[in-house]
Amino acid sequence: MMPVSAAPRVTFLPNERTVTAAKGDTLLDAALDSGLAMPHDCGGNCSCTSCHVQVIRGAEWLSPMQEPEEDRLATSPARGPGSRLACQALLIGGDVTARILGDRDPWSAAAERFLAADLADEGPSGVTERRHEPSDI
Predict the structure, then answer these.
(1) What is the mean pLDDT of residues 55-59?
(2) 96-109: per-residue pLDDT in tens?
(3) Do 11 and 18 contact (CB within 8 A), yes or no?
(4) Burial of 86 by CB count in 10 Å (0-12 exposed, 13-18 middle, 19+ buried)?
(5) Residue 11 and residue 27: Cα distance in Å, rounded?
(6) How far is the C-alpha of 9 from the C-alpha of 23, rounded, in Å?
(7) Is the separation of the CB atoms in 90 and 37 below 8 Å?
(8) Closest CA to 36 of 47, 25, 45, 46
(9) Residue 97: left (phi > 0), alpha (psi -120 to 50), or beta?
(10) Where are the beta strands (DSSP E) in the chain?
(11) Alpha carbons 95 and 59: distance in angstroms, whole number
């Protein structure tokens, strides 16, 4: 087990940026509070997998995974050893190293593409012309 530091430090890969966090912060909190951009499409509510990380070291210093996180990660094609959602992994002690994977929820990505296509078809009157039928989704 790694030694416990006074304040947990989190190293985010691939940019190898190390930040200091507080016990009780999530990995997402640690990233955002330090100015590190981390996707979090649902606002950190365990409703997507955009804050998906792979914990490389220090998993023992994170809260145990709960059922909602387990269920959400089951939808990720990138799930592997050490997978966690940064919005759910609470720092409980020592230092952690995590690789930001940043999945995009396939439903969110599909909705964004659909809305972008519809907005691009705005007619001269400002009314969106519908090109898509429900079966196109």
Answers:
(1) 97
(2) 999 999 775 455 55
(3) yes
(4) buried
(5) 10
(6) 10
(7) no
(8) 25
(9) beta
(10) 9-13, 17-20, 52-57, 83-85, 96-100
(11) 9
- Residue 136 class from Cβ within 10 Å (0-12 exposed, 13-18 middle, 19+ buried)? exposed
The structure's pTM equals: 0.72
Measured CA to CA in angstroms, residue 126 lies from 54, 96, 111, 120, 122 at distances of 45, 51, 21, 11, 6
11: CB partners within 8 A, 6+ apart: 17, 18, 19, 95, 96, 97, 98
Look at residues 42, 47, 89 and name the one whose alpha carbon lies nearest to residue 64: 89
How far is 130 from 117, CA to CA, in rounded Å? 10
